């Protein structure tokens, strides 16, 4: 255990002895950082957290639903005997306005006094200070890593080669491992830069997630419009898909109180560190798909994008909107309660199967045929033509990626 973690552990054990009860500390994503010997009551959730070093997803969802991420004072959480959860007092760990984690005290019989809660708050403040100081002490090394990572992802081949050499020579990443890149952001307009406050939250969330990973497995940075995590994959700590899912989960919890969802895209595996810039490009394109096409799901991996690889690249070309079939903007402009755009997209998504489409839209088959005829007339296409169907289908998806699809306008208005 590193010295900085020893300080947190000592504070936990000191409070446990003072209150004569068990104490546990999680990071902001509810992954275990420190815990005391068991004193007094214990439940299955605490046992599981100690054994696995993290809180089960269902329990995390229950805790975050009770507002702990926004709290500045202790919060009493409700018991759930059906999942082995006793009532607890949760004390947020904060310093300089940043949330670093949570201090937990099991209190099934509600025997904690006001003085006990005050002692827990004082300890949480000390732990927050220790964690903030840890970050400050690590800042020079962190800035050095950021400089190398920015060069590794940058446009200059010589700088990329130099950065890759220095990262390997200084053993900042696991040697002889494959690499991949994850890209993530709170999703709004893909062209909009993140506000300063969200950049800070995203950077802190990435730092906290990295600390839950083995040493030398990852580096992270926040660009103007998204966060980036470079990961080394040695095969001993799960697959890339599993790592991406864990990162998605941690970021969802870090932004749990906000109305915006977190989109995440990730590259495939690459053999050499010097290929990180290409992995970053793939991750960024995957991020665009996961953000603009919720039905595709997040996290979205480059290897599973299929035709969206081509469409995501097309969305980033100059004048990308000119690639959309000219009949579609006419259809978009006439969007009405009949939802012709929705009908066309469902029809094409269902492989032009009228039975499936009518069932999905709760339409009589005759109504569906009428709408399809109107769509053909408005767009100047024939849905019997494979070329026209391809142009319309790809155009609808490209319209989502560039932000002109009517469904996106309705979502933003809401």
Automatic annotation (TrEMBL):
Short name of one Pfam family: GGDEF_2
Domain of life: Bacteria
Stretches assigned to the PucR C-terminal helix-turn-helix domain: 340-397
Occurrences of domain CdaR GGDEF-like (ranges): 178-289
Residues of the GAF domain: 45-130
Family assignment from sequence similarity: Belongs to the CdaR family.
Protein name: Helix-turn-helix domain-containing protein
